[in-house]
Design goal:
This protein is of the alpha/beta class and 224 residues long. It has a single domain, classed as HUPs (Rossmann fold), CATH 3.40.50.620. Helices cover 34% and strands 13% of the residues. It contains eight helices and six strands. Strands 3-2-1-4-5-6 form a six-stranded parallel beta sheet. α2 runs antiparallel to α8. It starts with 14 loop residues before the first strand and ends in a 6-residue tail after the last helix.
């Protein structure tokens, strides 16, 4: 695979990264991000498929299969593009390392965000170098069913209050430093659920883009 770096240094519009194993990519990934893009005025969403995720079990589909499913899912949607650098690593993919590299490529003034779910925000203190993330990007937080909107930790809640903005224009006018809690649709779909359904021989085509579902069927993925 050749690493695709879709950053356009001539454009200062807000771009966002969205990482995941995408095992497989599904509407629970795509629909909230599309709604988020409309809310904050994202110019581009760069999907970052992970190779060796440090906090999760290893994917069932191999990197080539997962990348192809991502390509099929977004091929008719100009909002999305793909960066394959994390797939090309054989070591764990730490978000801070990827963001630091992208920031160096893009320069200091390009507005850049990283999209996470509410569950990831609440556990962000466990991330490698979490306190340096906002030196490189904004954090855009999508709602997740069943998760609180505040930290139990007083210090972390103070950190959130210090950096939180409710004004999308601040995200577009600053290169990094803000946390935005988005009002995105609560889509209760998980890749684990999809894999379990497919393994049991159940259809779940309503949870996936049609081309992704057909790829899974033709390659006999997630079947015991």
């Amino acid at each position: 695979m050749t690493c695709k770096k879709p950053i356009n240094n001539e454009s200062k519009g807000l771009q966002a990264l969205f990482g995941g194993t995408f095992d497989p990519i599904h509407y629970g990934h795509l629909h909230p991000v599309e709604a988020l893009a409309k809310q904050v005025g994202l110019q581009k969403v760069i999907l970052l498929p992970n190779h060796v995720p440090p906090h999760r079990p290893q994917p069932e589909a191999n990197p080539i299969q997962r990348l192809e499913m991502v390509r099929l899912a977004i091929q008719d949607n100009p909002l999305f593009t793909i960066d394959t650098r994390e797939l090309e690593r054989n070591t764990p993919s730490y978000t801070l390392d990827t963001l630091t590299a992208l920031r160096q490529e893009m320069g200091s003034q390009q507005p850049l965000a990283f999209i996470i779910g509410q569950d990831s925000l609440l556990s962000i203190k466990s991330w490698y170098g979490w306190d340096k993330l906002l030196d490189n990007c904004h954090l855009l937080v999508c709602s997740r069913p069943g998760y609180a909107t505040d930290f139990n930790d007083v210090q972390m809640q103070a950190w959130l209050k210090q950096h939180r903005t409710e004004d999308p224009s601040q995200l577009r006018n600053a290169p990094h430093g803000y946390v935005y809690l988005a009002d995105t649709p609560l889509v209760n779909i998980s890749a684990t659920e999809i894999r379990q359904k497919l393994s049991a021989g159940n259809l779940c085509n309503e949870l996936l883009p049609p081309k992704v579902f057909e790829y899974i069927r033709s390659h006999h993925l997630y079947q015991k």
